[in-house]
């Protein structure tokens, strides 16, 4: 064996980062279901060697994929976790893949070096009745993530009481608790919460900087954190107005896939807002209490498969009628990005769009479009160009649709009087068109000459990727 080979072997045998997806050899399973997994007996041998040789462990990630666990398997899991903790693990991830079982959380409460703890698909309620002597204070932990974990109100509160210096808390679809009050996390800076129906959350976090909040009812949500810089909201609400309280420090606001019943207006009081991202099919009126001179980015994403002229008009109003865009001083400095996934197109009245076009026309920096290969979507392409005048157009569609788009762009570019026949609305003059095609084989973009592009032999409905740089 060469020196290099011995060096690599030593590095492999003392790797401080251990990741196991453990399965049981006693179960009769298909070969495909055990690929990438390791037998529990092999895991046990590896962990014994780390214990006996006192090999340091930085990260220990253990996923258990066993459909019918036994008491012996639970014994092994506890032993492996003990070894990881004794060997100074700083990041611990534990998840169940094949079953939903209990987990002895109290082993973690006295860990001296643990900085990050991630638990998925397990039950902590079983241990809530253990004597208080098992509870310690873990001053090293900074991040706690609970995903699909069952625990009661007292257990959740007790956990956080024992992690006083935590600054990153993630609670995703945890069950068993009803009301949770966070009042003692003075160091929390990042909070990621997804709660079920009938669960309520009250948070006091004076230095909170990032908040992601999902709930089936956002009506009662009151957000007023003096140091909050980034806010992401998702869920549903039924009130006609939804207000985000005043925050001088809020810079980034993301509103994702809201299920809106009767809401007509979203009010935001963030005078220093820099970026707003809205994802969804509903288009309520957006109102800012005070315009932000620092605003630079507006992003809109929609997977509304069927579009009509009314929807286009509402989107134009949504993009244009906010104070930070209606103010001509700042409008030229704002970058607008729109992403659409289009399957079919309803009736589009271009004369109707023309009237809206004269009132308020946002110029979109980037327009991302996925258009299904259907013959009835050509009018939709016209409406996209008409409404948004994108500087960059990214499109995934059939080559037939791409050719239609190119011909339309060249027509707009070559139109000397910016006018078609009498029944067609006035066109906007397009100064320059540059086209680029994606080469899937080499995963690269190549420039193409729009005038030389024609329908190739083969299926014209095959999907292609292009992007166009447009100078209006």
From TrEMBL:
<dbReference type="InterPro" id="IPR053772">
    <property type="entry name" value="At1g61320/At1g61330-like"/>
</dbReference>
<dbReference type="InterPro" id="IPR055357">
    <property type="entry name" value="LRR_At1g61320_AtMIF1"/>
</dbReference>
<feature type="signal peptide">
    <location>
        <begin position="1"/>
        <end position="25"/>
    </location>
</feature>
<keyword id="KW-0732">Signal</keyword>
<feature type="domain" description="At1g61320/AtMIF1 LRR">
    <location>
        <begin position="56"/>
        <end position="216"/>
    </location>
</feature>
<dbReference type="InterPro" id="IPR032675">
    <property type="entry name" value="LRR_dom_sf"/>
</dbReference>
<protein>
    <recommendedName>
        <fullName>At1g61320/AtMIF1 LRR domain-containing protein</fullName>
    </recommendedName>
</protein>
<dbReference type="Pfam" id="PF23622">
    <property type="entry name" value="LRR_At1g61320_AtMIF1"/>
</dbReference>
């Amino acid at each position: 064996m060469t020196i290099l080979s011995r060096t690599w072997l030593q590095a492999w045998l003392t790797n401080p980062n251990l990741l196991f997806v453990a399965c049981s050899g006693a179960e009769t399973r298909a070969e495909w279901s055990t690929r990438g997994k390791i037998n529990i007996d092999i895991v046990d041998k590896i962990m014994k060697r780390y214990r006996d040789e006192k090999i340091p462990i930085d990260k220990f990630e253990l996923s258990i994929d066993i459909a019918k666990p036994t008491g012996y398997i639970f014994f092994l899991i506890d032993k492996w976790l003990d070894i990881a903790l004794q060997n100074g693990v700083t990041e611990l991830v534990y998840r169940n893949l094949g079953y939903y079982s209990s987990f002895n959380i109290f082993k973690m409460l006295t860990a001296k070096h643990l900085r990050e703890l991630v638990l998925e698909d397990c039950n902590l309620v079983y241990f809530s009745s253990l004597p208080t002597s098992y509870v310690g204070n873990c001053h090293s932990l900074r991040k706690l993530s609970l995903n699909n974990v069952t625990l009661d109100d007292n257990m959740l509160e007790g956990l956080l009481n024992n992690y006083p210096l935590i600054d990153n808390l993630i609670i995703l679809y945890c069950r068993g608790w009803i009301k949770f009050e966070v009042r003692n996390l003075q160091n929390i800076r990042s909070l990621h919460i997804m709660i079920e129906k009938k669960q309520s959350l009250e948070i006091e976090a004076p230095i909170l900087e990032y908040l992601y909040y999902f709930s089936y009812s956002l009506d009662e949500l009151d957000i007023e954190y003096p140091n909050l810089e980034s806010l992401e909201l998702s869920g549903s609400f039924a009130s006609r107005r939804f207000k985000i309280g005043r925050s001088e420090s809020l810079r980034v606001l993301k509103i994702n896939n809201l299920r809106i019943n009767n809401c007509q207006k979203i009010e935001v009081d963030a005078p220093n807002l820099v970026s707003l991202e809205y994802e969804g099919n509903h288009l309520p009126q957006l109102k800012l209490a005070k315009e932000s001179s620092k605003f630079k980015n507006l992003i809109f994403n929609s997977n509304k498969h069927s579009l009509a002229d009314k929807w286009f008009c509402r989107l134009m109003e949504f993009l244009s009628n906010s104070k930070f865009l209606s103010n001509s001083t700042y409008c030229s400095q704002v970058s607008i990005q729109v992403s659409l996934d289009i399957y079919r197109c309803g009736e589009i009245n271009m004369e109707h769009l023309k009237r809206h076009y004269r009132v308020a026309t946002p110029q979109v920096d980037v327009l991302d479009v996925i258009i299904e290969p259907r013959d009835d979507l050509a009018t939709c392409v016209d409406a996209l160009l008409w409404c948004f005048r994108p500087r960059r157009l990214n499109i995934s569609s059939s080559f037939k649709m791409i050719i239609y788009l190119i011909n339309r762009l060249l027509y707009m570019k070559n139109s000397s009087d910016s006018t078609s026949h009498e029944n067609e609305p006035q066109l906007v003059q397009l100064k320059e068109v540059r086209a680029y095609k994606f080469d899937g084989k080499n995963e690269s973009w190549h420039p193409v000459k729009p005038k030389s592009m024609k329908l190739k032999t083969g299926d014209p409905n095959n999907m292609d990727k292009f992007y166009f740089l447009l100078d209006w």
